[in-house]
Design a protein that fits this description.
By secondary structure, the protein is an alpha+beta fold. It has 3 domains: 34-244, Rossmann fold (3-Layer(aba) Sandwich), CATH 3.40.50.300; 251-333, Translation factors (Elongation Factor Tu (Ef-tu), domain 3, Beta Barrel), CATH 2.40.30.10; 340-443, Elongation Factor Tu (Ef-tu), domain 3. 17% of the residues lie in helices and 31% in strands. The chain contains 8 helices and 21 strands. It has helices at residues 47-57, 63-75, 91-96, 126-133, 151-162, 182-196, 232-238, 422-425, and strands at residues 34-41, 103-108, 113-118, 138-144, 167-173, 204-208, 251-253, 256-258, 270-274, 285-289, 294-302, 305-306, 315-320, 331-333, 340-351, 362-367, 370-383, 390-391, 402-415, 426-431, 436-443. The strands form 3 sheets. Strands 7, 8, 9, 10, 11, 12, 13 and 14 form an 8-stranded antiparallel sheet that branches. Strands 2-3-1-4-5-6 form a 6-stranded mixed sheet, sandwiched between helices. The longest helix is centred in the middle third of the chain and has 15 residues, at 182-196. The chain is globular, with a radius of gyration of 24 Å.
Length: 446
C-alpha cells in the first residue's frame, strides 16, 4: 500500500532524506518558539488529511502508528495510506470518515514546535471549532478547489476573525482534482478576498495545495509553477507571532494564595497564577482589584527559582512587600493601566447549546480565574454568517448562532475589550443545572 508522495523531492526541511517509518523523535532545542494553529473548513475539505500529511512529512509519527493506519486503510478499501486516520481517533470518526471532536496533535521541525487543533466541518459541530480556535495563533481554512467557498468556509473564517486569531491561511485544497488550474485558484482567492473585506482580518495568506499528494505542503510543487508563494510548512515555520502578545497591559489574575503550613517557613504569602498579559518585574508598583490597595512586587518565583521578569504565558508566584487581603479571582495590575471594572457586559457570543438563549436567562460566568452569576438582560441581534446582516428582531439565539447580548453580573469583572486582550476579554457561560458550557463570549467596547 502506497502513500501519495509530493511532486517535489521528499527531503525534510533540513535537507536530509528520510525514511517514512522513522520512529525516533528528534531532540528539539529548549526554548523553541511554539505556534498553535487550528484547521477549519467544510466537510470533506481535507483537514484531517492535511494534518496527517504534516505529521508524516515532519516524521512525527511512530512506526506502529503508521502500521495501524495502513491496516485501517486496508479495512476501508483504500488503495493508499489514508493519512486522515492519524487524527480521526474516535471509532465513529473512522467509520463515518468525518471529524466529530477536536483532535489535538503535536509535531516539531528544527525551527518551531506546533500544536494543531483539527476541528470538525459539520455545522452541528461549529461549537467544537470555536473551542479549537479560541487559543490559536493561526487558523487554516481549507476550501475544496472543486466546490469553492461554501457556507461553512465563510462561517469558520468569520469565527476565526471574531475570536481575533491574528493570522489566517486560506488553503485551496485538492488542486490535483482541477488539474492544478491557476484560473480556479485565482477565482477562489478573489472571492474570499471580497468576503474578507467585510471582516477585521489583519493577515491573510492563500496557498494552493494537495494534502493527499503533498503539493506545496512541505516543499514547493512543480505542478504549480505559476504560484510564487511559500509552501504551507514554510509559512507556518516563519509566520511572526511574538508581536501578537499583549505586553503592554499588565494583567495577573490570582488563581491561588500560597500560605505554607510548615514550621520551617514563616510569614510566606504568595499569589500564584498565569500571566495573562503585560510584563511584571520585582520593584514594580501594582494595585489589586477590586480593593484598589497598592503595593510593590517583592519577588517573582517559578518552579526553577526567582526570575527578573514575568510575561505571558508564564505560571508564577508573585510576592508583595505588603500584606494585603487578596483571594482567588482578584487581579494584580498597574496603577495607571487598569482594566475596566464593571457588572454590565456587552459581548458577542457563540451559542453552543440545543436549548436557545433568551433574555432573562440566568447562567454562571467564568472569566479568567473569577466565577460569578449573570443574567441575560438583552439580545441585541443575531448575525447572518453569509451576509453579516444583523437580525435585530430575533427573540432567541439558537445552537451555533452568533449574536450580541447584554449581561449583568452579580459582582464586577476586571475585563478588557476582546480586541485588545484575548485573555481578559473572553469568557464562557455555563448552565448551572447541568454544569455544561453553553456559550463562548467576547467582550466589546462599551
Amino acid at each position: 500500500m502506497d502513500i501519495p508522495t509530493p511532486s517535489a523531492p521528499a527531503d525534510d526541511v533540513a535537507g536530509r532524506a528520510w525514511s517514512p517509518r522513522e520512529g525516533e523523535r528528534r531532540r528539539r532545542p529548549r526554548g523553541m518558539d511554539m505556534l498553535r494553529f487550528a484547521t477549519a473548513g467544510s466537510v470533506d475539505d481535507g483537514k484531517s488529511t492535511l494534518i496527517g500529511r504534516l505529521l508524516f512529512d515532519s516524521k512525527s509519527i511512530f512506526a506502529d502508528q503508521l502500521d495501524a493506519v495502513e491496516a485501517a486503510s486496508a479495512r476501508m478499501g483504500d488503495d493508499y495510506v489514508n493519512l486522515a486516520l492519524l487524527t480521526d481517533g474516535l471509532r465513529a470518526e473512522r467509520e463515518q470518515g468525518i471529524t466529530i471532536d477536536v483532535a489535538y496533535r503535536y509535531f516539531a521541525t528544527p525551527r518551531r514546535k506546533f500544536i494543531i487543533a483539527d476541528t470538525p466541518g459539520h455545522i452541528q459541530y461549529t461549537r467544537n471549532m470555536v473551542t479549537g480556535a479560541s487559543t490559536a495563533d493561526l487558523a487554516i481554512v481549507l476550501v475544496d478547489a472543486r466546490k469553492g467557498l461554501v457556507e461553512q468556509s465563510r462561517r469558520h473564517a468569520f469565527i476565526a476573525t471574531l475570536l481575533r486569531v491574528p493570522h489566517l491561511v486560506l488553503a485551496v485544497n485538492k488542486m490535483d482534482l482541477v488539474d492544478y488550474s491557476q484560473e480556479v485558484f485565482e477565482a477562489i482567492h478573489e472571492e474570499f478576498v471580497d468576503f474578507a473585506a467585510k471582516l477585521d482580518l489583519p493577515d491573510l495568506t492563500v496557498v494552493p495545495i494537495s494534502a493527499l499528494h503533498g503539493d506545496n505542503i512541505v516543499t514547493r510543487s512543480v505542478n504549480t509553477p505559476w504560484y510564487d508563494g511559500p509552501s504551507l510548512l514554510h509559512h507556518l515555520e516563519n509566520v511572526h507571532v511574538s508581536s501578537d502578545r499583549n505586553l503592554i497591559d499588565a494583567r495577573f489574575p490570582v488563581q491561588y494564595v500560597i500560605r505554607p503550613q510548615s514550621a520551617n517557613v514563616h510569614d510566606y504569602r504568595g499569589y500564584a497564577g498565569t500571566i495573562a498579559s503585560g510584563v511584571f518585574k520585582p520593584g514594580d508598583e501594582i494595585i489589586v482589584l477590586p480593593s484598589g490597595f497598592s503595593s510593590r512586587i517583592a519577588s517573582i518565583e517559578t518552579m526553577d527559582g526567582p526570575v527578573a521578569e514575568a510575561f505571558p504565558p508564564m505560571a508564577v508566584t508573585i510576592r508583595l512587600t505588603d500584606e494585603l487581603d487578596i483571594s482567588r479571582g482578584d487581579m494584580i495590575c498597574r496603577p495607571n493601566n487598569a482594566p475596566m471594572v464593571t457588572q454590565d457586559i456587552e459581548a458577542m457570543v457563540c451559542w453552543m447549546s440545543d436549548k436557545p438563549l433568551a433574555p432573562g436567562q440566568k447562567l454562571a460566568l467564568k472569566h479568567t480565574t473569577k466565577s460569578v452569576r449573570a443574567m441575560v438582560k438583552q439580545l441585541r441581534y443575531t448575525l447572518d454568517i453569509n451576509t453579516l446582516h444583523r437580525h435585530e428582531a430575533t427573540p432567541s439565539l439558537g445552537l451555533n448562532e452568533i449574536g450580541r447580548i447584554v449581561l449583568r453580573t452579580t459582582s464586577p469583572l476586571f475585563a478588557d475589550p476582546y480586541r485588545r486582550n484575548r485573555h481578559t476579554g473572553g469568557f464562557v457561560l455555563i448552565d448551572e443545572t447541568t454544569n455544561v458550557t453553553v456559550a463562548a463570549g467576547m467582550i466589546l467596547d462599551n
